[in-house]
Amino acid sequence: xxxxxxxxxxxxxxxxxxxxxxxxxxxxxxxxxxxxxxxxxxxxxxxxxxxxxxxxxxxxxxxxxxxxxxxxxxxxxxxxxxxxxxxxxxxxxxxxxxxxxxxxxxxxxxxxxxxxxxxxxxxxxxxxxxxxxxxxxxxxxxxxxxxxxxxxxxxxxxxxxxxxxxxxxxxxxxxxxxxxxxxxxxxxxxxxxxxxxxxxxxxxxxxxxxxxxxxxxxxxxxxxxxxxxxxxxxxxxxxxxxxxxxxxxxxxxxxxxxxxxxxxxxxxxxxxxxxxxxxxxxxxxxxxxxxxxxxxxxxxxxxxxxxxxxxxxxxxxxxxxxxxxxxxxxxxxxxxxxxxxxxxxxxxxxxxxxxxxxxxxxxxxxxxxxxxxxxxxxxxxxxxxxxxxxxxxxxxxxxxxxxxxxxxxxxxxxxxxxxxxxxxxxxxxxxxxx
Length: 434
Ligand SMILES: Cc1cc2nc3c(=O)[nH]c(=O)nc-3n(C[C@H](O)[C@H](O)[C@H](O)COP(=O)(O)OP(=O)(O)OC[C@H]3O[C@@H](n4cnc5c(N)ncnc54)[C@H](O)[C@@H]3O)c2cc1C
Hints:
Elements: H1 13-16, E1 30-38, H2 42-53, E2 58-61, E3 77-78, H3 90-118, E4 126-133, H4 136-150, E5 158-162, H5 163-169, E6 178-187, H6 190-204, E7 207-209, E8 214-218, E9 223-227, E10 231-239, E11 261-270, H7 275-281, E12 287-290, E13 297-300, E14 306-313, H8 322-333, E15 342-352, E16 359-364, E17 367-371, H9 380-392, H10 400-403, H11 414-432
Parallel strand pairs: 1-2, 1-10, 2-7, 4-12, 10-17
Antiparallel strand pairs: 3-6, 4-6, 5-6, 8-9, 9-10, 11-14, 11-15, 12-13, 13-14, 16-17
Helix pairs in contact: 2-6, 2-9, 3-9
Flavin-adenine dinucleotide is lined by residues 38-44, 61-64, 68-71, 73-77, 79, 213-214, 240-245, 248, 265, 267, 297, 309, 347-350, 373, 375-378, 381.
């Protein structure tokens, strides 16, 4: 067995249970490619697979390790849907656009499920998800969703549960008044999915380079992508750095990094729970989210730890002690876990856009981007990758619905953007209380 050089991954439960051990070289020469992808998270790796499957010669450059960013640190919740209130975009995309993006929200899960099956990715996939309502207003909105899904051609079971059904079947907590289960959504080990997909891409011929941060991009018919020790000359480029992209986009082109705000989200993982405990707190092994703006999300891992996430942080500074911040929140939902050890704690950056619709499009004829999944990227990244590959291959123009929506540019540098978002979120949290 080859040694795993994972010292650059942030410590997390996922890092401790990483299964794919492929090591990739650092770029140290000048090479050519049809498409150069910058970023080795889901957006980048899934784009690489989509493109190599269509016959393109693909190079992928990653600053750190594959899945080092949000893709290898997230809650692992694969939840149907894209964006939040698609109705808000009616003016820009019309009914046709709303229908198309709604359908893509279902297709997105299908892309992930098919990918896992096709390449036999070992990532603890478990089907079953539940939205948790704590207020009658939230229950009403879930009832509408449930009706809409059951009247559509969605083939998975979706059903409403009242409080006692919820406690018996999904979450053993008094905090919620009901919920909606969706058996077409679920959970998985995101770092194993990302690194497993990278291994598949590599086997298909994608040239992957890690520890190869892109420093500069020079646009042109052939785009020059420069790292410290090498260069890729590519006919097309995909920017897939999301919240970690910094100011990489070429100067003189629209600055896509100003259209997202990086916000921190955090997770704790308990020690493995005994059968009595895990069957009491999450009897159906669903992934769950509550419906607050600043939501809590939690699920069991394959070895029956509780992975409890939340506490979105817009200040740009990680909390000093993630466990100290999240443990009381966990106990509020599950008081019976008092005294349970926390084995892992970690966080990562999500890219938030002002309107919370993913930003997928192109900056020039040959420079594309995908970002701003606003905390909902396990499936949507895969859909974005498919859209980018379809566009590059001239197979569909479905990307147009995303390009027709204008995205707010946050004024000022990162230091002003974060407080602005914090203010906006505080306002929404206040509304949340009513
Ligand atoms: C704590 C947390 C919990 C979350 N929970 C969920 C969840 O349960 N469900 C869900 O659907 N979504 C969740 N998300 C969001 C989801 O993880 C992201 O939307 C998704 O992973 C984004 O993927 P990405 O590939 O676009 O970005 P990332 O995974 O962040 O990857 C971007 C990569 O680009 C690289 N990069 C940046 N700049 C350069 C450069 N100059 N040169 C080379 N490489 C570069 C970075 O190193 C990084 O690896 C969560 C996010 C976090 C942080």
